[in-house]
Amino acid sequence: MNTLFDLSGKTAVAIGGNSVLGASMAKGLAAHGAKVAIVGRNLDKANEVVKEIQEMGGEAKAFQADVVSRKALEQAAADIEAWSGGWDILLNAPGKNSTTPFFDLEMDEWDDIMNVNLKGIVVTCQVFAKRMIEQKRVGSIINISSVSSTTPLSKVFTYSVSKAGLNSVTQFLAREFATEGIRVNAIIPGFFPAEQNRKILSEERTESIMNHTPMRRFGDPDELQGAAVFLASDKASSFVTGTTIRVDGGFGSMTI
Q1: What InterPro entries does the record tag this protein with (predicted)?
Q2: Averaged pLDDT for residues 24-48
């Protein structure tokens, strides 16, 4: 039991690991022994996360890539492999949101959000999972979904659709990669103080969220670490694939 959540000797790639939620989960993986590659568009932010991991005694390095660019992802993968020899854990945590009303939605904005939240994850998995399979690594892919993926939220139409699609991708790839020793799961966070939802948290909306969250509070980013470490561990979650784990304060169990 003492080694159930031990990730020593593992390398984790955290796509979007420079975001609030991605950084917290990456730090959780590092705290349990994983060597972590922080991948993001903003290299300065990625380096800040690396510094925090190093200060807590972990090993990490920053890499720059945008999930909308296959070329950038392939370069990051090559650079990470040169640094660590490969990877065992892929954490997909990029995200983009918008409050544009449905009838005002332009397809350029639709494409932009879909490219990051859905297409970008598909391409990331093509690049990184393929190499995991080639190296015959037993591993874990963890996608970060949203409560809006199962019950669409008002004011975030495209985001909700993209995350519903991500759940489907998670299940499909779980079936696709199971015989290769790679598990694919998703975490469904509730409401956390992340960049993409701050702009829609008016006083009225916050009250509505609290009324729909039995625990009556927002989540703390560090509260996602347990689920991430569990899914990353090939000992703790060795028979878990194709599932979604809610970390939402009971939001998904609330009706009226």
Answers
A1: NAD(P)-bd_dom_sf, Sc_DH/Rdtase_CS, SDR_fam
A2: 98
pLDDT digits (tens, 9 = 90+) for 91-105: 999 999 888 999 999
256, part of any domain:
no
**pLDDT classification of 202: cutoffs 50, 70, 90:** confident
Cβ contacts of 121 within 8 Å, gap of 6 or more: 67, 92, 94, 143, 166, 169
Contact 185, 241 (CB under 8 A): yes
What lies within 8 Å, CB to CB, of 110 at 6+ separation is 158
The answer as to whether 104 is a domain residue is yes
> The domain that contains 200 carries what CATH number?
3.40.50.720
Tell me if 25 is assigned to some domain: yes
In percent, the amount of the chain with pLDDT more than 70 equals: 96
Count of positions (residues) in the chain = 256
Work out how many domains the chain is built from and give that number.
Answer: 1
Is 159 assigned a catalytic role?
Answer: yes
Reply yes or no on whether the pLDDT at 194 is more than 90.
no
CB 30 within 8 A of CB 60: yes
Return the structure tokens found at 2.
Answer: 């003492």
Crossing angle of the two packed helices 120-134 and 70-84, in degrees rounded to 10:
30
Question: Is residue 18 in some structural domain?
Answer: yes
Which of helix, strand or coil describes residue 246? strand
- Sheet of 60-64, strands arranged across: 60-64, 35-40, 11-15, 89-92, 139-144, 182-189, 244-247
From CA 157, how far away is CA 152, in angstroms rounded? 7
Query: Catalytic pick from 87, 157, 159, 251?
Result: 159
Question: Where in the sequence is the domain holding 125, given as residue range(s)?
Answer: 11-249
